[in-house]
Amino acid sequence: MANLGFAIKASLGLIPGTEKIEEKKKLLEEEYQKLLDYSISNELKEYNELDAYINSSAFKTKKNEILSLNYKTTEEFQKEQRLAKLKKDKGIINYYKVLESSDFKRFTNIETSAELEEFNKLNTLVNSKEHNSKKEQLANVLAEEIAKEKEFTTLKKDKELKKYFKFKELASYKTFLEIDGSEELANYKQAEQENNDEFKTLKKESRFKTYFKFKNSKQLQLINNVESSDKLEKFQELEVYITSNEFTNKKESLKFENSEEFENEKRYNELAKSDNLKFFNKYGISKQFKLFAQTKASSELQEYMKLEEFVKTKEFIAYKEYMLDKNKYSKSEEAERENRYNELKKSDNIKWYLSIKDSDKFNSLKEWNLTFEDNFNTGKIDETKWMNSFFWGEMLIKDHYVIAGEKQVYTKNKNAVLNGTTVKLVTKNEKSTGKVWHPKYGFNQQEFDYTSGMLSTANSFRQQYGKFEAKIKIDPTYPVYQAFWLRGEKIAPEIDVFRYNMSKKNKMEFINHIDSNSKNSIASNLGAGALTGKYFIYTLEWSPKEIKWLINGIEVHKTTQNIPSEPMYVLLSTGIKQDPKGEAINSEFEIDWVRCYDKAE
Predict the structure, then answer these.
(1) Using CB atoms within 10 A of its CB, is residue 320 exposed (0-12), middle (13-18) or buried (19+)?
(2) Share in percent of the chain as helix, strand, coil (round to 5)
(3) CA pair distance 204, 307, nearest whole angstrom
(4) Model confidence at 277: pLDDT above 70
(5) Angle at Cα 73 formed by Cα 72 and Cα 77, nearest 5°?
(6) What is the mean pLDDT of residues 48-77?
(7) What are the tens digits of pLDDT across the range 499-520?
(8) Distances 475 to 16, 192, 456, 501, 586 between C-alpha atoms, Å
(9) Using CA atoms, how far apart are residues 568 and 256, in angstroms rounded to an integer?
(10) Within 127-158, where are the H helices?
(11) pTM of whole model > 0.70?
(12) Which stretches of 89-145 are assigned E, i.e. beta strand?
């Protein structure tokens, strides 16, 4: 039995009004769509990103880091302190003092002067091994030449050599030389051997007397001694050399004052006495310059210059200013993002979204996914969705037909009248010819007095399980029946969302046909006088475990037995089964919309 309470409430007008239900659903859908639209909005995206960030440990850590920043704990502060300390360093103070002094400028000018360059070259030269070696060599060679000259002088004064040269000048020596070894002496010796008169004569000659006297003299002995010694040869060599121009020129060239080295030393000594070089050398060994040079090469000065350059950079100045700013957090990107987050939290949109996003308010919408819909507002029947006949008639004979016993024939869209927002399936008095299906006799042509309309999704849409609903206005005209139903591939199973005026006048039936035998069907009926002439929303919720029938959201019947488990299509139809007895009929079964849903995962 259908819900008796529903029938009573319906008769008393206590059922929720269809317009209110639709308006409520429309508002809910609009709000849900607003929720969906807002859920992908840039504002919400920004809020969610900020919400995730502001509530993250990373943000909290960063915020605490900024708030706890202390310039005195930074490396930059340590560098600044180190610079201050180095500024007080005596070496660095002296370095910059010297660097700016006139003496240092003079020193550097001299340092790059041609005069100092010449002095340094000469200094290197006169103190080189080559220079001293050349100087020593000149002295040694000159000494050798002077020694030769002294030796010559000594030999020249030698008594023996003096006598030698004196004796060689004697007439007796000359006579000796003339006779000694001569033929004359040979004749003398021949005569001496013969001891003849000639010998006696020759013996008396002064020449021979002089010869023999000198031969046996000490003078000849000295001459022979000298000539047999190295002394005479040495003296003669030296005499030739010492008295030559070669010796005179060489001796002159070996004098140091005539050498290039002497000129270099002379120029070196002149430069060493110049005021500039005296100043340069004196300043170069001064305490302040030594400290300057020592500092210049020090790591401390390099560190100082780097630090001084560092603290002048825009980056350091900006960093120090930032670190010393007590309002640094309020100026940070984090504060900007936090302020924006707090601003967004106060917005009506965010408040609304947060209050509703996790509520169960939209569960009825979230529960279902729309799979089929027709609002009949296009001005004509959408033939991609609807056909006007039974499925197998279209498949087998390409024509309309009715079941034996039916008093009307279905037409192709002729009895489906659209007014811009609804469709009316009209049943009326009208002569027509059509086919009838009889299980025993098959298809036969027959004359009919009435025509009617049917809409079926057999060719376009079928679904197993889900929600099937339509907004329908029932016409109370009897014996016209009106039906909203589902059918599978065969005659059964079939689920009637409702059948009105089918078996009894003014009765609404809710049926689950298990097979073609109506005795095996699960049915319930409801007095429907209060449901005619007004729109109601008829709903079927079909799951593997149960089927529920609802009108305007109120359950009127439910079954858990013999639940169909195959895809079914939607049918909306009107017709006449009881004999109208010639009564004039003009019934309008009006449908505002049809919607089908499947269960959301």
Answers:
(1) middle
(2) 50, 20, 25
(3) 124
(4) yes
(5) 55
(6) 94
(7) 999 888 889 999 998 876 655 5
(8) 20, 208, 20, 10, 10
(9) 135
(10) 129-156
(11) no
(12) none
CB neighbourhood size of 297 (10 A):
9
| Residue 115 falls inside a structural domain | no
- What token pair was written down for 351? 């408040």
Residues 409, 552: one domain? Answer: yes
Instruction: Mark which of 252, 270, 288 sits at the end of a domain.
Output: 270
CB atoms within 10 A of CB 265: 18
Quick one: pLDDT at residue 167? 87
Tokens read off for 166 = 């004196």
What's at 16, amino acid-wise?
P
Kindly state whether residue 502 falls inside one of the protein's structural domains.
Answer: yes
pLDDT interval class at 204 (50, 70, 90): confident
Q: How many residues are recorded in the chain?
A: 601
Please tell me the distance from the alpha carbon of residue 91 to that of residue 97, in angstroms, as a whole number: 10
Q: Which amino acid is at 212?
A: F
- Stretch (H or E) spanning 591: strand 586-599
CA-to-CA distance for 183 and 207, rounded, in angstroms? 14
pLDDT tens digits, 291-349: 999 999 999 999 999 999 999 999 999 999 999 999 989 999 999 999 999 999 999 99
Place of tokens 């040495």: 234
User: What CATH code is carried by the domain that includes residue 413?
Assistant: 2.60.120.200
| Together in a domain, 541 and 395 | yes
pLDDT at residue 89 above 60?
yes
